Every structure is written in structure tokens, then in C-alpha cells.
Amino acid sequence: MFRIVSILVALYIYFLIALLNHADAKALGYWMFDDKNNIGKDSSGFDNHGEPKKAAAFDGKGQVGGALKLDGISWLEVPHDDSLNAKDQITLMCWANFDAGALGESSEVSLIYKNGPFILEGDQKDRRFWTSYSLAKLRPRKKLGSFIFEAQMTEGRAFTLPGDKDHPEVNEWYHIAATADGTKIRLYTNGVEKASADQKGEFKPSEQVLTLG
Which SS3 state, helix, strand or coil, does residue 172 take? Predict the structure, then answer.
């Protein structure tokens, strides 16, 4: 279970499509959080609008314009659309600012999460959730780094561990990004590559919602 106490702003999802030997980057989700009357508006042109859940609220003090403020049990929920299922390439980016509660020893923060269904395997004793792709902040006590990019792929689970050894400071803005290019997955903090791993095929598609926070 993720505990979310954070502020997010200007969150992007890019799916990279090879077209005639050129990289055609299409933004399929762009949540700026700059309209307090329509917090979940998607500015990508694909109408992947989100709905704030519980106490998710507008905050005018973002890094770039406004922000989405979350209190630990709130999130923005984007209904499933086929446009949000990646094939083998993707870029995720966001600005994030964490308060003291989000940086506690037992606190994990979900930033972007394309949910997978609840799975019953074998004799139905092995029950688990999975994510098509996700970006998150890990709890410090795990000693696995601060951020992680994870994906369930056709040839297994891929993730960037160990990640960035430097954990975030309270009330500082961080630009967190992840990419998959068909061969490697990579994690970046403030424009610096912090971790990479082999990609394991294509992303496993999901018809579940996308959550921000």
C-alpha cells in the first residue's frame, strides 16, 4: 500500500512511435493542474481527463503553474483508454514535492500507476496486483534507492534497482522521469540518469485505470 503525501505538477506521458525512421513523440497524457475548476484536465488532445478522488485538491504553488495536492489517501483517477497502453516504448515525467510525512521511513509514494487486475494464480493462493507501468518513490528503509520505474512485460517484470541513492529533501522540487526504448528502461532525477535495466519485451496491456498519486 502506498502512502501518498505529496504535491505533483505538470505530469506527462509520452508514447514514442517509430515513423519512417523518425521518432514521433506523441503526448498522450499531459496534466498541468493549472485550472482549479478542472483539476484533472488533460492537455494532450487525447481527452484522458482525470477525476480527483477523496481530498485531492488544487494548489496554486506548483513548480510550473499549479499543482495537485494529495494528503495520503487521495489521488487523481484517469479512466482506461487504449491510448494509455504502451507497446514497447514510453516516457513518463513529473515534478514532485514531498512533505515530511511522505519522506518517512515507512512511506512509499505512487506517482504514476497504470493498474493491472487482481490476479489469482495456480491454486488461487498466490494473489497479487500488478502494474503495466509505474513510477514511484520508495521508502528509505528499503535501501533500494529513492525512485523506481517498474513494468510488467511480456517476458517478465522489469524494474530499475538499485536506483538513486540520494533521497528527496522536504519541500524541494524534483523532476523525475523514466523511459523505455524497446531495449533498456532508464530512470532519471533532475535530468541525470540514476539507474537502468534490460527491458523484457513489450508492456503488458491493462484495461484498468491510470492513477496519479
Answer: coil
Q: What Å distances lie between residue 27 and 13, 84, 97, 184, CA to CA?
A: 6, 10, 23, 20
User: Which grid cell sits at 104?
Assistant: 518517512
- As a whole number of angstroms, the distance between CA 142 and CA 22 comes to 40
Question: For residue 105, how many other CB atoms are within 10 A of its CB?
Answer: 8
Q: Which domain holds residue 121?
A: 6-212
Determine the Cα–Cα distance for residues 11 and 59; give it in Å rounded to an integer. 15
Report the 10 Å Cβ neighbour count for 85.
Answer: 20
1 part of a folded domain: no
Q: Identity (one letter) of the amino acid at 97?
A: N
Question: What is the rounded distance in angstroms from the CA atom of residue 13 to the CA atom of residue 88?
Answer: 14
Going by DSSP bridges, is the β-strand pair 89-98/51-53 parallel, antiparallel, or unpaired? unpaired
Q: What is the C-alpha separation between 32 and 95, in angstroms, rounded? A: 10
Number of domains in the chain: 1
Cell numbers for 150, please give them: 517498474
**Tens digit of pLDDT for each residue in 75-108?**
899 999 999 998 999 999 888 888 877 776 767 8
The dihedral built from the CA positions of residue 131, 12, 31 and 138, taken in this order, carries a sign that is positive
| pTM score, whole prediction | 0.85
